[in-house]
Amino acid sequence: LGGLYDATTNPAGAVGSGIALALRAGAGLRDMAFVQFHPTALDTGTAGQVPLVSEAVRGAGARLVDETGAAFTDPLAPRDVVARAVYGHRQTGHRTLLDATGIADFGGRFPGVSAICAAHGIDPRIEPIPVRPAAHYHMGGIAVDADGRSTVPGLWACGEVACTGLHGANRLASNSLLEAASTARRVAHTIASVGPGGASSVRAEPAEPMAFCPTRRDEVRRILSVRCGVLRDGDGLAAAVAQLRSDAARNDDSLVALAIAVSAYARCESRGAHTRLDFPDREAVPVRRLWTAASLTEAARERMRADTTRERMRADTTRERMRADITIERMSHQDEFHV
């Protein structure tokens, strides 16, 4: 679903459509807050799909530096740590660069990265590579068991659209290939053993066509990138929920984005790829909620009710302060009159 973010290593059309289909069919979702950002995508200066600069380059000795040439983080730290460091450094106005000039025979060792850089006018042998974090992999998705069964009879899922729990909150590099290869085989064998007659007794009902609006997709990308990106906080997530809930019933982009925002808001901790600035610690016993279309809608409504209540309390407090100020002013005028 990286296509729902401003910058992603995924194809632009990867927008969580399978998740939306399953959710509208009644399936439950899990761990939607866990969106992994790769720390070193090529900074092309444009939005959309951006090329990946492999971690192997850092493993070979490349350093993460700013425009002054100063290193600002450990290049071999876990993805979430490096992504936060790169994002944070950029937020303070610095450029973020991957200096691979010390790697001998760069083109021979990394022909793919070398070709990508050359296509953008960069020669890694003599100059650092501009990099930025980009949405890369989603650990959450359709909640399934070890055989790929969702909560809807007859609906199966595997691969990145599914949430098996195998990746936890922060997938390790290349483990998705292992998961896809192993679970796909297992799911196929299980479906075959069930047989066509027992696969499902559920009949699909005609669905209303979903609205697609290119300008709305751009808005969703902006909302998720700003509110549900590398660093998050309660106010930003609440704002995202408010901005996404209005058309989630008829727009798949908004629905999937709302699931991410609601899940992230409900997870009051920092864990793996999910970092809450207002909740920097991990919960001792994490809660893994199962989200359905109904529970997402209700959670969004609760968020709106809470915001409305808070605004009313603020208004009441403001009125009380104004009354107090008027009373004090009247008393001071009376004192002046008596004097």
Low-confidence stretches: none
How many DSSP helices? 10
Biggest sheet architecture: 4 strands, antiparallel
Average pLDDT taken over every residue: 90
Strand content: 5-15%
Overall strand count: 9
Global shape: globular
User: What topology, given as strand order, has the largest sheet?
Assistant: 3-7-6-5
Per CATH, the superfamily of the domain at 37-136 is Succinate dehydrogenase/fumarate reductase flavoprotein, catalytic domain
CA radius of gyration: 25 Å
Ends: how far apart?
73 Å
Annotated CATH architecture of the domain at 37-136: Alpha-Beta Complex
Q: Into which percent range does the helicity of residues fall? A: 40-55%
What is the CATH domain class of the domain at 37-136? Alpha Beta
Tell me the series of helices and strands, N- to C-terminal.
Answer: EHEEEHEHEHHEEEHHHHH
**Which fold name corresponds to the CATH topology of the domain at 37-136?**
Flavocytochrome C3, Chain A, domain 1
Structural category is alpha/beta
Cofactor: FAD
Keywords: FAD, Flavoprotein, Oxidoreductase, Pyridine nucleotide biosynthesis
Domain Fumarate reductase/succinate dehydrogenase flavoprotein-like C-terminal: 256-297
Catalytic activity: L-aspartate + O2 = iminosuccinate + H2O2
